[in-house]
Amino acid sequence: MSRRAVVIGAGLAGMLAAAVLSRAGADEVIVLERDALPDGPEHRKGLPQGRHAHLLMAGGLDAMEELLPGAGLRERLLAAGAHEIPLSSGMLALTSEGWLRRWRREGPAMVTCSRALVDWAVRTAVREQVPVEVRRAAAVGLTGSAARVRGVRIAAPGGDTDLEADLVVDASGRGTRVAGWLGGLGLTGVQERAVDSGLVNASRVYRVPEGAERFPLTVVHANPYVSRPARSAMVMPIEGGRWLVSCGGSRGGEPPADPAGFLRYALDLPDPIVGRLISGAEPLTDVHLSRSTSNVRRYLERMPRWPEGLVVLGDALATFNPAYGHGMSVAAFGARVLSRELGRGGGPGAPGLGRRVVRGAARAADTAWSTAVGQDVLYPGVRGGRPTAADRALAAYTRRMMKAATGSYAAASAVWDVTSLRASPVRMFRPSAVLAAVAGPPLPPSVEPPLTPGEREVLRGLDRTGV
Q1: What's the rounded Cα separation, in Å, for the pair 275 and 467?
Q2: Suppose 141 and one of 105, 137, 153, 248 were both cysteines; which one would form an S-S bond, judging by CB atoms 3.0 to 4.6 Å apart?
Q3: Mean pLDDT computed over 384-405
Q4: How confident is the model at residue 207 (pLDDT cuts 50, 70, 90)?
Q5: Please, which residues have CB within 8 angstroms of residue 236's CB and are 6 or more apart in sequence?
Q6: Given phi > 0 = left and psi -120 to 50 = alpha, else beta, which region is 314?
Q7: Would you say residue 159 has pLDDT above 90?
Q8: What is the C-alpha to C-alpha distance for residues 1 and 359, in angstroms, rounded to an integer?
Q9: Region entry Disordered: which residue ranges (predicted)?
Q10: Cα-based distances in Å from 438 to 159, 223, 389, 430
Q11: Which residues pair with 84 in a beta bridge?
C-alpha cells in the first residue's frame, strides 16, 4: 500500500518537512500552497513579512544543511549574492547598554539576504533532491476523526474535495486555522497566548553606494528598559548589490511610510548612523509597511488528546516578533525534530508520531519564544502580558550581560552563541559567562560606532544630513 504525506504550505517549514518525509519512506509527498510560487527569488503575497529584514542564524543554517545533505545550501546562497556576517567583527550594533565592540576573533556568523532568496534556494534544493509535488490549492479543513486525521479538505470551484493522506503536516504559517480544524474533529480547548507590542515594520531597498560594498551590517537596537516605545533600525546587505533597510517601532513609536518621514525616523534614533548612511544612497523601492508582528504561541503539546496522522510545524505552532530574527531557524528546528522522530522507524504512519513531533517542535521553539516575549512585555502598551517577577529578574541579568558585552569578549561570545541559536540560554549562566557579567566590561565603553578609518570615511562621504 502506498503511503502519502500531505504538507500544507510551501514556505521554509513546509518544504523542509516535505524533504524529510520523502527521504523517510513516503511514496508520495504533496505540498499544497495557495499562492502562485515565483520561478525565482521574488516576493510572494502570502508572506506578510517577506519584504522586511530576515537573518538566517548559524544554528538555523546548520539545521537546514543537515536536512538537505549535499545541497550546499550555504554555498548556494552565497553564490546568489547573500552575505555571511561574522557576529564578532562584521556588525555595528548599538544596544541598550552601548556599542558592542568588534573583535578580531572567530565566532558564529549569520547569512543576510532577502527572504525571497532563502525560500527560493530551499525550494529549489528540495525539488532537486527528492520527488515532491507542489500543487496550487487552498486547504480548508482536515478529514478524519478525533482519533486519526485521514487527509485534507481542499477548496475547489465546484465544491470542496478531499485528499487522503497517511500523514498531514500543517506548515501553513502565521495564518493557520489549525485550532478551528481540530475543533471540527471534536478536539477543542487549544490554549493560545498572544503578546503583541504593536510593532510596525517599515522597509525600503537601496542601491549600495560605490565604495560602501564592505560596510558592516549596522543596527540600532530598541531599548526595552526606558519605558518608551521600541524604536530600531537596520541596514542589512542583501543580494544584487543592495541594502535592505528596516525600521521598527512598537505601539506609539511606529515608523511612517513616506520617504521623508522614514529618513527622519532613522535620524531620530539614539544614534543617527542608519539615517546618515541612507541619506546618500539611491532608493530602489517605496517604503513597505507590515503590522503582522505579534508573538503567538499555540500550546498544541498540551492537548489531552492528539490525533494520529497530524503534525504542526513552524509559524503554525509558534510565531515570533520578527525583530529577533529567529523565525526561519525555528522552522528548520521543527523539521529536524520530524526527521529525527521518523528516524526511529515506522515511517509517516507510525503510532504516536504526530504527538512526539509536536512536543519536540514546541521545545525547539521555547528559546525563541522566551527571548521575544521576555523583551516585548517590557514595552509600554503591550497587549497580552505583563512582566512577571521572573521576567524582570531575567531582564536585569540580561541587561548586565549586555553591559559587560560592550567591553568583554567572554560576555560577548556568550551573547553571540545564544543569539545565533547554536546554544540554549543556559549558555548565559555558565560560570565563565556569569563571572563576565558580574565583573562588567574590562574595557571602557565606546561612545561612537566602532568604525575603521576607511568605514568612517565612507560614512562621511554618504552623509547628506549635516548631523
Answers
A1: 10
A2: 153
A3: 89
A4: very high
A5: 53, 55, 112, 217, 243, 244, 245, 246
A6: left
A7: no
A8: 29
A9: 442-467
A10: 65, 21, 21, 12
A11: 111
Relative orientation angle of helices 115-129 and 12-23, to the nearest 10 degrees: 10
Check residue 66 and give left, alpha or beta (phi > 0: left; psi -120 to 50: alpha).
alpha
What SS3 class is residue 337?
helix
* The three cell numbers locating residue 207: 542601491
Reference 252, options 198, 305, 207, 176; nearest CA is 198
Q: Is the dihedral of CA 413, 408, 246, 226 positive or negative?
A: positive
Is the pTM value of this prediction over 0.85? yes
Relative to beta strand 295-298, strand 318-319 is antiparallel
C-alpha separations of 251 from 28, 319, 371, 376, 378 in Å: 46, 19, 19, 11, 12
Q: Give the residue extent of every domain in the chain.
A: 4-54+114-194+293-374, 84-111+200-290+388-467
Q: Is 189 helix (H, G, I), strand (E, B) or coil?
A: coil
Length of the chain as a residue count = 467
The candidate with the shortest Cα–Cα distance to 257, out of 220, 205, 203, 321, is 203
Mean pLDDT of the region 450-460: 96
pLDDT of 323 reads 79
CATH number corresponding to 4-54+114-194+293-374: 3.50.50.60
Inter-axis angle of helices 431-439 and 409-419, nearest 10: 130
Distance between CA atoms of 113 and 243, rounded to whole angstroms?
Answer: 9
Q: Is the pLDDT of residue 373 over 60?
A: yes
